[in-house]
């Protein structure tokens, strides 16, 4: 048994206290608040590290523990504890969140140094870390839901951090509303669990999932998928992620790439035993993952906004994870593995993008970048390493995780392995293309911007428009240090963790031992095919964006590209399918309410009012009239009593 | 003759008192009407005492008298106060509660 | 019920009803008070006749002696001058009032007539120890708490009377100088500085009701007390002047013909 189990609540409490202090002390802490935020985050990481080392010291079967702090809800048959689930899965997340989180805190100190609200930013970041840790450490779906909503809140606050700019506030609202749709799924799933299993804690629900009716488990599984789709930006709730890039870049790196958006994957993997009792739901999860994978990849190919291209890539990569999670126990470990490596290299890529923006006066249009490699060497190298990692080039970490998912996608019987495998394979090729496009457009090719020294504006106005004037410079060490650390992770993490299937065995206490299945194609063939496609994609991008001249305005393109530039019309679809009917419905309801319901009640009220107006004339103020009324009333009462008592009838 | 006649007399006096309250405008006369009604009930109480051979009726009449005395003190004081403020003893002039 | 009581009842009852009805029709509040006093004394007599001598005495002492005197005091305070006009100001109130009064009488009389009463027991047994003693025993034993409460009520009412009629001075008490200056300041509005003229003084009659005459021989209306003017009891000056002229003529007639002296006598 682990000695340090009781430290688990401090993982949540430490950043929460940091957030509370920063928010409550207010402007007084403006000068040192960001360092308090960094301290809280780092302290949390240290606590997590202590628990992790303790966990590594005990036998595999002792690594699962629940620390119950207090009873939370105690109403008759419903008992929910304030319990913390400490096991290899949650500790993986804890380490990812606190490590990457601390790095990004550090990065933000420099990145946000010119923002007058930097303290508030750190308060929100700490709040996010606390909520995310609560999410992964909760021992019941209900407590998980608290963290789930907490990260949603933090995400909302941080996307709209610069809310004086209207589109940012709108983007925050959009993310919030679309997340609520997913939350409905989680709430409904919890209701079903309560009705079926009589509890919402993992032990009860997952322990008795086999015994439940398959229809029920399928329903719960689909509802959990809905929740996961909302949080992880999967089809059909994917539209908010691109707009979420309105937030500061560190937020995009931490919340909308490395951690929060992967919460859906965590939820599904955590619910593994339940999903295994619902094969249909698993199939739907895999299909959703596969579709989102392609969707994100296609959108990523057409985006010129560096952050939105990365967001599309995130969506696509989470699609990989969902696909793996939908494949059952054989895929869980690889889903989490890819999640972990992705958390490193995608955070690194985002921080690199932030560094580029920092250099280019917050411009995000890649068509105005180019040739930055020499001016931003650290950024270029760290981003390059992240780029190779996401491409899946051996021996970078992406190779180990993504390649495993592709292999697993080819496992199975009938049509599934062929479809899923092909999608995963093609996705890898497209990923290579768009990520290379991003990298080449930014760092290679010719400069599509101008410096004052080099002759001023308009030097490379290929399309006749003026090139903007920029003064690119490398970022301060506070920003490059986290990028370097993350780049090291991008390079080595996969290899280290994959050696001897170390990570898979590490997760076995939670995900269970998966039998080894042979893919329908030989593994060497799959790996070769993947690499060939990756090289092809990268080469294509190299020719298009590094060798040829890149137009500074989007050139005319076929229909698919035009659609991809506007996110495959996702907003139009949402507006047409959901918003418009909803608006028509509410309008008609309002109309019906006004004409039928309101008119009826207002008429009644008006009638009463008019009656009152008539009766008001009785209130003459003359006491004698009142006395007459009293006397009349008395007479009536006496008469009625007399008649009722039968005296009058005799 | 029957004791009922006393009750008839009490009823008539009571009705006359009530009518006074309704018809007269001078607050003092209205108040006299109220006193008349109280006296009528006293007569009925005394008659009932005699009818049932129970002296409690007379005790109740006694209480009515005492309460009436208290009521007269307060009522007349109010009338005097109103008269001071409004220079009128007419109950119709005290209609400020209207609307 | 003895024959004597019957005679008493049928003598008193109609008079009392008439007096009570008088409350409805008399114009002066003082007359109404007299009507009520009559009814109350009649009731006292009836109480005595009904074997309630103690209540009869209390009725005279409390109602006739105290309550009605209080009424009269207040009448004096408020102004006996204002005779009630009997014209109704609230539309329909007279007919509603009469109808309701008649209806109430009908209902009450009907109830009394419909009810069946047990044979009269009489109070001979209860009054064996004399009526006041019997009354006291019930009052001081069964109703002692109510008795005390009523005592508290009376004290409270007395205090209430004091508080309600107490006039609080709102400003500083004006000095004589201030009053005089205020009067002078009001001169332009037609206010008279000097005391009002005394009414005319004539040996012939009560001079309070006749106005004084100014040097030009015109009557001064405001020399007559206000109450008499409101009551319409003042004598008009022309009437006085004619009376005076007749008197003067008579004196003049007397003077040239002293021989006819005594014709008028």
Automatic annotation (TrEMBL), chain A:
It is found in: Endomembrane system; Membrane. Gene3D superfamilies: 1.20.5.2700. Residues 138-424 form the NADH:quinone oxidoreductase/Mrp antiporter transmembrane domain. Keywords: Membrane, Transmembrane, Transmembrane helix. The chain crosses the membrane at residues 6-25, 32-53, 89-109, 121-138, 184-206, 218-237, 249-269, 281-302, 318-337, 372-393, 418-440, 477-500, 520-543, 626-645. Residues 72-122 form the NADH-Ubiquinone oxidoreductase (complex I) chain 5 N-terminal domain. NCBIfam families: NDH_I_L, PRK06590.1. This is NADH dehydrogenase subunit L. It is a multi-pass membrane protein.
Automatic annotation (TrEMBL), chain B:
The keyword Transmembrane helix applies. It comes from the Bacteria. The chain crosses the membrane at residues 6-23, 28-48, 60-83. Keywords: Cell membrane, Membrane, NAD, Quinone, Translocase, Transmembrane, Transmembrane helix, Transport. The keyword Oxidoreductase does not apply. Belongs to the complex I subunit 4L family. This is NADH-quinone oxidoreductase subunit K. It catalyses: a quinone + NADH + 5 H(+)(in) = a quinol + NAD(+) + 4 H(+)(out). NDH-1 is composed of 14 different subunits. Subunits NuoA, H, J, K, L, M, N constitute the membrane sector of the complex. Its EC number is 7.1.1.-. It is an enzyme of class 7 (translocase). It is found in: Cell membrane; Membrane. NDH-1 shuttles electrons from NADH, via FMN and iron-sulfur (Fe-S) centers, to quinones in the respiratory chain. The immediate electron acceptor for the enzyme in this species is believed to be a menaquinone. Couples the redox reaction to proton translocation (for every two electrons transferred, four hydrogen ions are translocated across the cytoplasmic membrane), and thus conserves the redox energy in a proton gradient. InterPro entries: NADH_UbQ_OxRdtase_chain4L/K (IPR001133), NUOK/Mnh_C1-like (IPR039428). It comes from Isoptericola halotolerans. Its main location: membrane. It is a multi-pass membrane protein. HAMAP family: NDH1_NuoK.
Automatic annotation (TrEMBL), chain C:
It comes from Isoptericola halotolerans. This is NADH-quinone oxidoreductase subunit J. It catalyses: a quinone + NADH + 5 H(+)(in) = a quinol + NAD(+) + 4 H(+)(out). It holds the Pfam family Oxidored_q3. It is found in: Cell membrane. NDH-1 shuttles electrons from NADH, via FMN and iron-sulfur (Fe-S) centers, to quinones in the respiratory chain. Couples the redox reaction to proton translocation (for every two electrons transferred, four hydrogen ions are translocated across the cytoplasmic membrane), and thus conserves the redox energy in a proton gradient. Keywords: Cell membrane, Membrane, NAD, Quinone, Transmembrane, Transmembrane helix. Its EC number is 7.1.1.-. PANTHER family: NADH-QUINONE OXIDOREDUCTASE SUBUNIT J (PTHR33269:SF19), NADH-UBIQUINONE OXIDOREDUCTASE CHAIN 6 (PTHR33269). It is a multi-pass membrane protein. The chain crosses the membrane at residues 7-25, 32-49, 61-83, 95-117, 143-164. The lineage of its organism: Bacteria, Bacillati, Actinomycetota, Actinomycetes, Micrococcales.
